[in-house]
Structure formats: C-alpha cells, structure tokens
Amino acid sequence: MNNPILKERADQVHRKGNAPFQISCDRDSLAGAVSQRACVFCGSRVVLYPIADAVHLVHGPIGCAAYTWDIRGALSSGPELHRLSFSTDLQERDVIFGGEKKLTNALNELIDRHHPNAAFVYSTCIVGIIGDDLEAICKRMSEEKGIPVIPVQSEGFKGNKRAGYNAACRAMSRLVGTGNIDDVSPHSINILGDFNLAGEIWIIRQYFERMGLQVVANITGDGRVGDIARSHGAAVNVVQCSGATLDLAKMMKEDYNIPYVRVSYFGVEDMAESLYKVANFFPDDPSILEQAKALVREELSVLYPQLQAYRQDLEGKKAAIYVGGAFKAFSLVKAFRLLGMKVVMVGSQTGTSEDYQELHEITDEGTIIVDDSNPLELSAFLQEKDVDIFVGGVKERPIAYKLGLGFCDHNHERKEALEGFVGMLNFAKEVHSTVMSPVWRFVPRNNK
Amino acid sequence: MTKTKSNQTNKTNYVSTTNACKLCKPLGACIAFRGIENCVPYLHGSQGCATYMRRYIISHFREPIDIASSSLSEKHAVYGGGPNLKKGILNVMEKYEAKMVGIATTCLTETIGDDVPQFLYEFNEEFGDQGLPTLVNVATPSYSGTHMEGFHATVKAVIDQLVGKTDMNTIAIAPKTIIPNVNIIPGLVSPEDLRHLRDILEDFGIAGTILPDYSDTLDAPATDEYAKIPEGGTPVADIAQMHQAKATLEFGRVLAATGNTGGELLRDRHSVPHYALGLPIGLRECDRFFATLETTTGQPTPRKYTQRRGRLVDAYVDGHKYIFGKKAVVYGEEDLCVAITAFLAEIGVKPVLCASGGKSGHFQEAITAVTQELLREPPLVKEGFDFYEIAEEIEQLQPDLLIGTSKGYPLARKLQIPLLRVGFPIHDRFGGQRTLHLGYQGTQRLYDQLVNAVLEKKQADSPVGYGYL
Q1: Inter-chain residue contact A37 with B51, CB threshold 8 Å
Q2: What CATH class is the domain A40-173?
C-alpha cells in the first residue's frame, strides 16, 4: 500500500515521540480526501435538534432534512416535535424565483399545525446563494405568531461543523434572557453540551439535584424553549463537549456575567472531577461539596467491583479513537486506561490546537494523533497499530468491521448511556461485548 | 372494470414537507457509481453532502462507501468550484488509484452555475498525459427529482459517455471473448437481487452486462485490508460494449414512461432492441421477465425456475385464505411500489394506498396497468406524498399492514400493525442489503414473510395462543 497520507495533510498527523509536538488543524477539508466531517448545517442541526418543543424547519432541498430525520437518539421526557423532519423541499422554480414565499407559507402551516414554543429555520447551501432574507421573514412570522422564530445561519459551505455550532449558539442566545427567573435559586446551574443521548442528561441532572442544585435549563438534551429563555437566571453554566455550546456560555458570560466551567461526564475521573468543580462554585453552602463527595463515594463503591471483572478480560488490549470533537477523546483516553487498555491512536474531526496539545500530554509514546482524517488513513493506522477496538461513529464502524476488529459507537446514534458512573459500566460492557466476541477468531485478519 | 376512484381529496396542498418519502438526487448517483468497477463516486459540492450520504448508505448496507467531495467553501461558492474539482480528482487518483471517477453535482454547484463538463474538458487538456481515469459526470441538482431520478440519470450518463467509446485515453479495453447477450438495467435493487439476476443469466447460459452492479461492492466478504475500492462492479470495458448486446432489459414501468432512459439511449443510438419491463416481482411480472429472456436468448427457462414458479403458485394457494382481503399500504420509490402492488393484487391482498415522494407523473398509470385486471377497487395513488400525508390518509383507510422502507416504522408502531420492510433504506433491521425481492424466489420470500406477518399478528392478538395456524 502506498502512503495513505496525502502530502497536503502530512502536517495534520503527529506521532508522539519522534519530534516536538506540532499539528495543523482547524482548516478546510482537502478536496478529494474523503473527510469524515460534515458541514455547517450539520453542526447547527445536531446542537439544536434536541430542543423538543420547537419546530425545526430546514429551508432547502429535501436532502438536508431527510438525512437528519430522527438522526440522534436525543430523548425527550415530553414533546417530541424534534423527531419530525420539516423541510421547505425547495424545487427548481424556488431556486429561480426565490424561496421566501414558500418559507413564509411553510412556517404558517407548521406553526398553526403544531403550536410549537419556537421555530428554528435552518439555512442550507443554496439559500446562501439565492439570498432569501431569512432574518426578515423570521421577524415577521415571530410578530404574527407570537413565538420566537429564529433563523439559523447554517449554509453548509460557510465553514465546517464548528461554524455550525457557533450559528446554533447565536440562535439560542436570542432566546436567553426572555423568560422569567423569579423562582431560580442562587444554587442553580444550566447543563450545556449534553444532548440526552440514551437518556444521559437525566443521569447527570439527577447527580446535580442530589447535590442540592437546581438545574434551570438543559442545553440542549431534553431541552425546552422556555427553559433556555430563563437560563440567564442560573448561577453557573456547566459546559460539556468540544465547544458545541461553549460559544453560548461565552455569550452568556459577556451578557449576563454568568461564569462557566468545562466538564466531561465520561469516565470515572472526569465525572467525579466535574461534580467537584461545579460544587466549588458554591462555597457559601459547603453541603453541596459534601453531597458531591458522598455521591461519588457511593457510586464508586457500586461501580468498581463490577468494573474489575471487565478489566480482567480487557487488560492490555489496544484501542483507537476517532470522534467529532476532541474533548470527548480526553475522557475516552482516561476511561480506557481505567479498563487497563492502551490508546494507540486518537483523532477528531474538528479539534483545536489546544485540544491536540492536551491529547499529546495525556497519551503514551508512539500514539498517533490525527486531525480531520479519512478512511484510508484511519484503516492504515488501525492496521499498523494492530488495535483491538475502534471507537467512533457510524461512518467509522464499517472501517473497523472490514478490517476484522471491534467497534464501539460513541457518537450520536448510540443507544447505551455512556455518561456518568453507570455510563462507565455500560462503556465497559460495550467494549467487552465487542472485544471478547468469538467472531474475531474467524476473520481473515486472524487466519493469515 | 370498475371506474377509477377519484384521487382528489379536499385537503389543502401542503407547502411544507414532513418526514419525506424520498431522498435527494445525488444519493442515487453515488449508489449507481458504486456499482461500476474501480469507480469512486465524487460529489461536486460542499463536504456535508458526501458525509451525510455516506452515513445514510452505510446504515443500510453496513458496508463502507467512500464518497469523495470537492469540499467547497465560501470562496469557491463565490469564484466557482472548478479548481477544487480538479484538485479533488487528482487527490482521488493519487490515493484511490481509481480507474473511473463518477462526478455528480449537488444543489450548491448547480445553483452557482459550475460548468462541470467544461471543467473536465480543461482537466483532460491539462493532465491528459498522466494516465487519467475515465471521468463520467452527471447533473444531479437536489431541487429537482428524487434519489431515483439521480440513480437513473447516472445510469444514462454512464451509457451516454462510455458505450461504444474506444478512444478512452485511459482505459485499455481488451476485446471480450464472449459478446454479451443481454444488458440488464435493473434500477435501485438490493445486492441480493443483483446476485440473483447474475445467477439467472448464468443458468440461462448467457453472458450479460448488469448496469450498475453493486452486489459485491456494497455487500463484500470480510477482508483483512480496507479495500480502497471494493472488488466488483460492472467493468468499464463491458459497459463500453453494451451496444453489441442483442437486447436491453430495463426494469421499471414508471421509468419507462418517462421516455428518458439508458436503455432507450442504447436503442436510439446503437439500435439495441429495448424491452421495458416492470421490476420482476409477483408471478405476472416475473413471467414477463422470463419470457423476454427466452425471446432474446432463444433458450427455454431452465427447469430450476419453472419449478420455483410452480412452488410459488402452490404457496399462493396454500396461503391465500390467511391474507384475502387484508388491506395494505405501499410506499416508497414509485417503481418498487408498482411492482409490490402488482404482486399484492395477485394474492388477494387489497392495496388501499400507493404513495411515493416521487413525482414522475406516471405513477397512477403504472399502478393501473398492473392492477386493473385483478382489483375490483383500485387503490388511491399519491405522488409527491410525505409521511405526514400518508398518516392522514391511513386514518381513514385502516390498513392491516404496511409495505415499504423502514421509514414507515413510526406509522406501523402507532397503528400496531406489521411493517414488511422492502427496498432502500432499511435502517432498523439487519440484512437489508441481502433482502431478495426479484424473481419467483424473491416473490416467494416476500409472500412467506407477508403471510407470516399476518399470522403473527393474529396469534399475538388472540387470547387463545393457537399452536396450529
């Protein structure tokens, strides 16, 4: 096999050990490289998607809506409007004459039909070209219907997924500050950057509530328009994930002077650390930190004995990680270590140089660190490192399986809760169920 | 014949689409290109399209599909995507060592007015000395037509740009020892269907060209290498010689009615006799298919298939009482709906609604053609429908089962009725790529599954818990 890395991408791959750490990132994907990245629209769509009582209208041809219909396992405890896929389904004549009229009529129709608490209108590639004035239409509809109708500037080609996160945050910031905060406790937080995949935000919310904290808004897992509207009443923004909602936290710091703290709910260390970090924001009530400590003790006393059984089987196995945002990878590296496993490759679609610097610090010598990779590179790395399990999303799964190695879905289609202490146990089970399967005995890789 | 029920309803025509019963045009192009040997599908557009479609296709086939992209950004949208297209093709050449690159446009590049044929001409001028892959391009603006139009347009573009060409500077076309007897243009069927068609040709003892053929590329055996391009697919050299075949068999009654197909191009440009057939599902459509094969090859249908036909009729008889009068809703792409409806009409199941997101303008006539001799009451036929509209119609129709893609699952769940999964996509069950629909054998499988779905429902709903049914 020839070198799988295109010359222009050589500086986006680093092997820890041979040279001082340096990696290039945060640039446009290379044409023809078959990037695993999606687009700006995708970034906005995944962040706003779990807001369950809003209409999410995709203004564009049908594809963008069709491919994001019910795509995330973002659960709702109430309304499920987010699971419907709304589109203006633009046709040729709309492209020629403009889609504004169709958009107005579609909004009229959908708002009257579903009575949502807000509507988000996503701009797609061609809307950016034909120049429909989303801002004006949304403003008018908002006045007519008496609900927030918010444009999301998510034209697919105007950057990568991270630009989409930013557009989503700007859209949500229009809601913030519009709700009543009279009953918000001084001991309160917003949970940002968790999308309630497989019910995860319910686990996390319950931890915070056990500590005596009020959760004002879930942003955005099991999210509600009204909660986001009064989220400016919370004392702290607790932000997870690689910046999907970090921009919103920054805006709220600027506008409402609400401090934020970055956390991760994956793995034992990061989960516990996150609870302590949040508790430390409330020094006026020491019982909050006490509760956090008690909670961690209690959960660990249940978890550790169960983990040991898995660890015995998994000790020494090798893992590779390729995820959307690098932040998740930090926790995964630690989680694998807790299982006695070794991470030999780690990469992300949209990591920043700070992210990669941190990955470099927490990984072992020889680990491959890669930005915005593609199937040919990933498969070559997996083979070279002879890994036992690859962690990624749907697009990474067939790469692992074709090579005859295990896989764990850690992306938005997962059906197992992987956050919190119980999530660590589920993660161990997931890893165990793929690594220990007898099927690998029969694949060509092990029958050379 | 009873008179056709009016398809006019009092409902307003909705402006918005909710839960579309269709996909976008370039997706069909990608699947079709994946069915050509050593071909990399390439989308000229922004990065997201390729990634979304990969994810969607992977979730059905459970196979890798690498789709390259021009990854256009803002400045390209302003100044044109030509430079990135060329760069992208060069990168695909370098890393994938592709013999062919199949380039489909997207809504972005169509809207900014990129002239892809011109770009490719320039590319040839500039890099022609480097041993270029064959480049085929197709216009697939997603704002006009569905994934099916994209699929068919790609097949036609491939025929238009490759058949009869001997001057392709890049591909050495070794003359074939066996001249293909027939061309089969099957449409968007499953890898298992394609394998079945290959078996049929083999059993008839004839060489044939199936275009496209992703039976191996989208359902490949386990390997220990990540194949840059999976083995298999219709060889480009075979495509170049499709004009020498004795006949083209092209599936899809709706497709045929459009009068704009690859098979017709072979007929009009190269005088290859053209047989437009329905997808061979159900006894009558299968009989037509086998009769056409007999005509074009001069061979009788092998006993294996006449036996299967006999067993199918036997099964029709054995199972008929369980399913008589059951009401079914069929949805999905138009031609598969037509074929399934043809089959239902034969077995006494009553199709009450045939719905598609496609808008060919020929759905009604095709459904009528396959049902009128058998059905007392024709089904409602709806083009340009989405799942919201299907759900509305269903409230009145009270069907006993649904037949279509996995995207009807929310409806089946709500109504607590069985869903028979057929076609593409099947995202919530295992083995969608191995679903056999075609031939007497595929019909047999569908029939068994349908009868069993009815029996299972009856058994589950019964307080008795019958052990014999």
Answers
A1: yes
A2: alpha beta
